[in-house]
Amino acid sequence: TLVMRRAFGVRGAIPIAIMMAIIFVFWQAFNIAWPANFAKGAFGWPFVPVVVISGIIYGITAYIGFEGLKWLSRITVPLFFLMCVAFVVMSFAEIGWSGMLSVQPSAADAVPIGIGVTAVAGSWILGTLSGGDVTRYAKTGGQAVGSTWLGIGFVRGFAVFAGTLTAIAFATAN
Question: Which of 84, 97, 100, 116 has the fewest CB atoms within 10 Å, i.e. the most exposed one?
Fold first, then answer.
């Protein structure tokens, strides 16, 4: 908010602050709902109890602050990596390399231009906004650059790769 006030003045920063608040609320809702969607789809667990549990965990980490986020990250980041590896293994077990390479897109599968532009723009915006997250614990400029390449380059790239293989192997966009 201080940067917005300096750039746009006190009155000019108000609409931007309102927009940021709205985005923040929906971001929190997304972060609480996606584990429930995953648990329901993968394991058949009921949606509402998992949302409640996600909300409690998310709330606790918000209450504790960065220390809570640090501990949550120490648990979830390795689990996320293992999940991606498991999906890659499951995808190859399902259709193998030959099946992956033989997939031919059809006109019926084409993504509308609006969705494609949104996905590309959103990807760049996400990369820009996540810079603070991946450089949070860097003590030097070199560490910030290294963590950016690792976090946004390698990890995000691997997650997209795993998701793409899984979507191809199981013929789903979800």
Answer: 97
* Tokens standing for residue 146: 């290294």
Sign of the Cα pseudo-torsion (128, 51, 64, 2, in order): positive
The whole-model pTM stands at: 0.62
Q: Rounded to whole angstroms, how far apart are CA atoms 22 and 105?
A: 37
Tokens describing residue 93: 């077990």
Contact by Cβ (8 Å): 127, 152: yes
Please give the Cα distance from 23 to 126 (Å, whole number).
13
The one-letter code for the residue type at 25 is V
User: pLDDT tens-digit profile of 60-102?
Assistant: 877 888 787 778 878 888 888 998 999 899 999 988 888 888 8
Structure tokens at 149: 């390449």
